[in-house]
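Readers outside the structure-tokenisation community will struggle with the description of the input data as it stands. What matters is that the chain and its backbone geometry are given together, residue for residue. For illustration, here is how one protein appears when written out as sequence plus structure tokens:

…
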Amino acid sequence: MASRTGLVPFLSNNIRGFKASPPSFHVIRHSLSIARGSACPSRLYSHTDEVRKNTIEEFEANFGEGAVYGNAFKPSKTLLEYRQLFDTIAAGEKNKFEQHTLSGRIFAKREASKKLIFYDVRGPGGNVQVVCSLSNSKDPDRFDYLHGNLKRGDIIGVEGHAGKTKTGELSIYAEHVRLLSPCLHHVPAALKDQELRFSQRYLDMIINDNAARALKTKAQVLAFLRSFLDARGFLEVETPMLAPSAGGANATPFATQAKALGSTLYLRIAPELYLKQLVIGGIERVYEIGRSFRNEGIDNTHNPEFTMCEFYEAHADYQTLMTTTEELLHSMVVSITGGSKVKAPGSDVEIDFTPPFRRLSIVDELERQLGRPLPNVNDEASVPELLKIVEQHNVPHTAPHTSARILDALASHFVEPLCVQPTFVCDHPQSMSPLARSSPTKPGLTERFELFVNGKELCNAYSELNDPREQRRRFEKQLQFKLLGDSESQVPDEAFCKVRGFINHLAVISVVAWCLCVSPRIYARTLHRRERLRTVLRFLV
């Protein structure tokens, strides 16, 4: 039922205080349309590149060794800081009493005359116009040569004073310009080919102003999560990514060989089992934010590696977790976007994160949608009847046919599309939740919920099963499913069963488990408003 898409695609276009850089008053004349399907089209690298390399050698000969690729230039401000400081000055006003140093990449060059040249320079946070005049230059003898060899794509350092032109464009009036790093390839004015954008992210980020916004949104999400949990007494830890067994979730793991150990190790599919051992060891509030890996398909909602936040808290239950989840997500959205409502990707639907969120019992909702009661879904004898239901309603499903997999298919078809606004889907059957505690009031069900937003899962949580005997029985049942061909079933974790049994001989502890996919589920679809997952991943496999 789970997909790994997210809250940073709703958030980025709704970020409070985000203001796109104002467009240049000048239109870049040249554009490049790249043929689709070429991962590295040769037209990006022309025969002029060799000429450019020769020019750089001549440039060093004229300006001295270290004039290019030097490291002594230190900007006094970023372009964003510069804009924030001087955006309010009046058109035609200049501040000649303060010197500033900026750096950025040239995106446009305009020559009013041989003695007056304009550059549009872009960097993190915006763009600034550079006005270079012979009369203002500290090196007039080499003015012509310098500006005759600066090209689009070059990174330059500028020293000068702030001001605005008569048309109101914020500029820096240069007294000294230095070539910091020449660009040896042609930089296209536009990058419309999607495949090229995905395969060459650095080029996408150079050309498109908003390409890096998802990275910034994700950083805000991670910072907020840490702040929220730290303030509530949680301890952040790191647990192994390589383990002798893959557990903690129903997923297919990546396997590798450890030469030093002579054994097979698995990239973790979740940090769950290690975190539980820490709780058992006495750390009653613990969390980890880190990468996990699932050897599954790649599509608009799945990626093999992703970042998740997982925490465990003693002496709580899943009802408590729902309240915590509502508080966390509502305060996060308000902190990042400035309000509790965000636009869903690809539509004008507003997602409202104001608590309380709607709650749906998964079995009750399925029975309501189907118009009939379900069989005993915790008994594998119910599989033939469940198969008749999915076939009758044309629900997509794949082998092996276990009750848990069929229920997952039914929920994906009937329940998830109802969850546009934040919705807790609760009370999963035991067959779907081998690590969750059984409900004391609803036989056969567990104290578990999944939060869905815009039809996609954002987080998964449950009250922890703390009976070591029942835990072993459920693990053994999962092993039976794996033998039937279900590669996502969890195998028995002997170390975990042993440590769980040890603590239960001492005291019974009530623990809740909570997991949120940060990359890219939490930010790709919710906060960054992107429908396709790959548009917010900076690098693809």
Notes: Confidence is low (pLDDT under 50) at residues 17-47, 502-508, 520-524. Residues 94 and 467 are 74 Å apart (CA to CA). The radius of gyration is 29 Å.
